[in-house]
Design goal:
17 strands; glycoprotein; FAS1 domain-containing protein; secreted; FAS1 domain; about 20% strand; FAS1_domain; seven-stranded mixed β-sheet; about 475 residues; repeat
Length: about 475
């Protein structure tokens, strides 16, 4: 028969103590993070993407509609999965040849689905170059668009290539690793959008596209005006600058001229010499010019690249930033060249084009001449910020030199790749660390249990209470 202490049996007391020990051991376990270790970092889009090229191209009306339709996220996901082909109508087709009432219908907030369907009808989730068109003796090829509709590619006997009912006017106008953009003469309207528009007006016989009007007569010659031929990319503008200016801020600057090829149509040495003299006259970038000319042979190499048709964007750190470089960072063989290579982007970018890109996509990764490292740009404080953390730099002096082949942008810091930052931080953290040992702290329930056992004179039986 169990003995009792003040009306409580030893077995009951033992069970109560065991329960207290189990609760304290469970509470001492580290808490697990229910949220997991995954972070919701957004995807970074490459600066050489076809989406960035669309926003930076002369198809400004189409790019503006894509932005209003909130399709950038959808197109980013499509580009991440496969190549795409965009059939881009020229600006005149969206400005003058479109019924104003139909355009108002598309831009109304309640008709966002129709606008998205219309734009996705111009995009095929695969790469289709101009050489992939069927011959005039072959049957039309059928391709599924991003809106789950179909486009037919046709080649007529005369050699004209058609996309549905629109003629292909600028084949392979923009080519990027993840897609291609073809210029077409008119807007393609799917049947579902046409029916939505007709249902809205309660008329089924109204066409969304204005019919072709009577031929225009030139008042000077009293002859019929001939349609102007399409202007190729890189050619001088047809209209004077005052007629070509838009009433508001433009979406992005005009693209740079195309490469000149191996025939050396460009005088790269003179252009590099001109931009280095501009750096010296601008003031505050003497160290950068000294490294290009005296400390390395990068000026000669850049001139050769420009002569062969390449375009370059130089992120030039100012003298205050260059003065922070230590002797160890410059004394290693090839260190100055590697530093400058990381500040040269093999694209023609201006302050406006870079800011528009980071404003729309958040983060942009620009390729550099120091492969495979990229410079990450993002929007910060109304400007463009390169890098991250303490090694970041802001766009300090925009468009110091821009001639269509070389663009120089002044920044207020020297950039280094992320790998070098991690290696330097590991070296700094190698110092010996003293490990402080602390006595394990007993839980509150254990302390209460030991006190109760102490009052009963039974605390000496348990080692945890000693």
């Amino acid at each position: 028969m169990d003995s009792h202490i003040y009306g409580v049996s030893k077995k009951t007391l033992f069970l109560f103590t065991l329960l207290c020990l189990s609760v304290s051991s469970i509470s001492a376990l580290p808490h697990q993070n229910k949220a997991g270790n995954s972070t919701g970092t957004g995807q970074m889009i490459n600066s050489n993407s076809v989406l960035v090229a669309l926003l930076d191209s002369h198809y400004t009306e189409l790019a503006e509609l894509v932005e209003k339709a909130l399709l950038l996220q959808t197109l980013e996901e499509a580009v991440g999965k496969h190549n795409i082909t965009i059939f881009a109508p020229r600006n005149e087709a969206l400005e003058r040849q479109l019924d104003p009432e139909f355009k108002r219908f598309l831009l109304e907030p309640g008709n966002l689905k129709s606008l998205q369907t219309l734009l996705l009808f111009h995009i095929i989730p695969q790469r289709v170059g101009s050489n992939d068109w069927p011959g005039h003796k072959s049957n039309p090829s059928r391709h599924t668009t991003l809106c789950n509709d179909h486009q037919h590619l046709i080649t007529q006997n005369s050699g004209k290539k058609l996309v549905g009912s629109a003629e292909l006017t600028r084949p392979d106008d923009v080519i990027r690793p993840d897609g291609v953009i073809h210029g077409i003469e008119r807007l393609l309207i799917p049947q579902s959008v046409q029916e939505d528009f007709n249902r809205r007006r309660n008329l089924r016989s109204i066409s969304a596209v204005l019919p072709e009007g009577a031929p225009e007569v030139d008042p000077r010659t009293h002859r019929l005006k001939k349609p102007e031929p399409p202007v190729r990319a890189g050619s001088p503008p047809v209209l004077p600058i005052y007629d070509a200016m838009s009433p508001g801020p433009s979406l992005a600057p005009a693209p740079a001229p195309g490469p000149g090829g191996p025939h050396h149509h460009f005088d790269g040495e003179s252009q590099v010499k001109d931009f280095i003299q501009t750096l010296l006259l601008y003031g505050g970038y003497n160290e950068m010019a000294d490294i290009l000319v005296n400390l390395t042979s990068l000026a000669t190499e850049m001139g050769r690249l420009v002569s062969e048709g390449y375009v370059l964007t130089v992120l030039a750190p100012n003298d205050e930033a260059m003065a922070k470089l230590t002797t160890d960072q410059l004394s290693e063989p090839g260190a100055p060249e590697q530093i400058i290579y990381y500040h040269i982007i093999p694209e023609y970018q201006t302050e406006e084009s870079m800011y528009n890109a980071v404003r729309r996509f958040g983060k942009i990764g620009y390729d550099t001449l120091r492969l495979p490292h990229k410079v990450v740009a993002q929007e910060a404080d109304g400007s463009v910020k390169f890098g991250s953390g303490d090694g970041s730099a802001y766009l300090f002096d925009p468009d110091i030199y821009t001639d269509g082949r070389i663009s120089v942008q002044g920044i207020d810091g020297v950039l280094f790749p992320e790998v070098e930052k991690e290696s330097t931080s590991v070296k700094k953290s190698v110092s010996p660390v003293k490990v402080a040992t602390t006595n394990p702290r007993r839980g509150k329930l254990m302390e209460v249990a030991c006190r109760m056992l102490g009052t009963l004179g039974q605390d000496s039986r348990f080692t945890t209470c000693q």
